[in-house]
């Protein structure tokens, strides 16, 4: 071993080389080596890829969207419907229907899904799928169509790759930051007792969540949640940004509600999914309204970091809120 005192940080064992060049051959170890060096993916990167693919293979042209017509609107609806079914559906099958990962990295020990009269059709999965597909996908597609039409008619500015490449790329990074700001405030608004009771309670039927719970909302909540994309009436963008913006909201709603911290393959967490932060919001309600991109919860005292001390603080806060 090296003289560790000479280094601030050094690997624990001897440095490894690709098993492909070792004798006797270790095919499994070699496969693992290459798998590890290529399989570095994140949800944001996947969604950026999906947005680009959607633009080239499953979207109208800007010229087509100048006037509303059933053809291109159906294309948008069908693509969004399939996207949500593939993402939420496969996560549901993997984690819950077939329990491929068992309880590994599962937050809530209770089984999912549940049955009960609080759910539409008395079933959590059918309830969640109905609200997500019937209301969620419809409003998502309607807002997308509205922005395409606005761009085609000059009511919203358009930005092309050649206009400003740095800014074109920066918009992808700014959308999650904007989401963090926007979502925190509409979410707090939805927790005002009147709006909670009539609108947001539908999403909160899910105390133990699954991928289909993410977009399971009241239609009014879909309108204001996905209405975030109307920022592009002010901030000029390319249709790819619009696709990314809406797919980021809808598809990360599925991934963050998975109920598991991540996808484990060969004992390693390969893909970060649900956040404990939002999982706690579904359990305790009056904490963690936002996301971690901008820590609004920390600024406004509603942050639950998962520790016992935070638990006491949040319970006191709730008592105070009930008392007033
Ligand atoms: Zn809430
Ligand atoms: Zn939620």
Give an overview in words:
With 324 residues, the protein is mostly helical. It has helices spanning 27-38, 43-57, 70-97, 124-152, 165-190, 193-198, 219-226, 239-256, 276-284, 296-299, 308-323; strands spanning 262-265, 268-272. The protein is built from 11 helices and 2 strands, in the order H-H-H-H-H-H-H-H-E-E-H-H-H. A hairpin with a 2-residue loop joins strand 1 and strand 2. Helix 3 (70-97) packs antiparallel against helix 4 (124-152) and helix 3 packs parallel to helix 8 (239-256). The model has no long low-confidence stretch (mean pLDDT 90). The site of one zinc ion has 5 residues, from loops.
Task: Let me know the average pLDDT.
Answer: 90
Q: List the secondary-structure elements in sequence, H or E.
A: HHHHHHHHEEHHH
Q: How are the strands ordered across the major sheet?
A: 1-2
State the shape: globular
Associated small molecules:
zinc ion
* Structural class by helix and strand composition: mainly alpha
Task: Give the strand content.
Answer: under 5%
Separate helix tally:
11
Helix content: 40-55%
| Radius of gyration over all CA atoms, rounded | 22 Å
How many angstroms separate the termini?
64 Å
Q: pLDDT under 50 segments (min length 5)? A: none
The tally of beta strands, per DSSP, is 2
């Amino acid at each position: 071993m090296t003289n560790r005192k000479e280094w601030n940080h050094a690997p624990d064992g001897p440095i490894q080389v690709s098993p492909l060049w070792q004798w006797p051959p270790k095919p499994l170890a070699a496969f693992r080596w290459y798998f590890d060096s290529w399989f570095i993916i994140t949800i944001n990167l996947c969604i950026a890829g999906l947005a680009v693919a959607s633009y080239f293979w499953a979207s109208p042209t800007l010229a087509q969207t100048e006037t509303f017509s059933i053809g291109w609107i159906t294309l948008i609806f069908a693509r969004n419907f399939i996207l949500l079914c593939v993402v939420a559906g496969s996560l549901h099958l993997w984690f819950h229907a077939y329990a491929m990962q068992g309880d590994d990295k599962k937050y809530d020990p209770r089984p999912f899904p549940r049955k009960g009269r609080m759910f539409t059709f008395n079933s959590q999965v059918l309830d969640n799928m109905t609200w997500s597909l019937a209301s969620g996908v419809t409003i998502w597609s309607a807002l997308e169509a509205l922005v395409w039409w606005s761009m085609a008619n000059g009511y919203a500015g358009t930005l092309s790759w050649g206009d400003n490449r740095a800014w074109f790329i920066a918009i992808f990074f700014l959308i999650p930051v904007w989401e963090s700001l926007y979502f925190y405030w509409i979410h707090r608004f939805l927790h005002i007792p009147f709006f909670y009771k009539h609108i947001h309670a539908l999403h909160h039927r899910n105390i133990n969540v699954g991928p289909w719970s993410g977009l399971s909302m009241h239609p009014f909540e879909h309108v204001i949640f996905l209405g975030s994309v109307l920022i592009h009436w002010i901030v000029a963008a390319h249709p790819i940004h619009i696709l990314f913006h809406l797919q980021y909201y809808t598809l990360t709603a599925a991934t963050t509600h998975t109920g598991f911290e991540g996808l484990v393959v060969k004992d390693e967490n390969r893909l970060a999914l649900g956040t404990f932060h939002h999982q706690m919001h579904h359990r305790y309600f009056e904490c963690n309204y936002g996301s971690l991109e901008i820590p609004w919860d920390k600024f406004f005292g509603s942050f639950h970091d998962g520790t016992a001390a935070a638990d006491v603080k949040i319970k006191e806060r709730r008592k105070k809120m009930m008392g007033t």
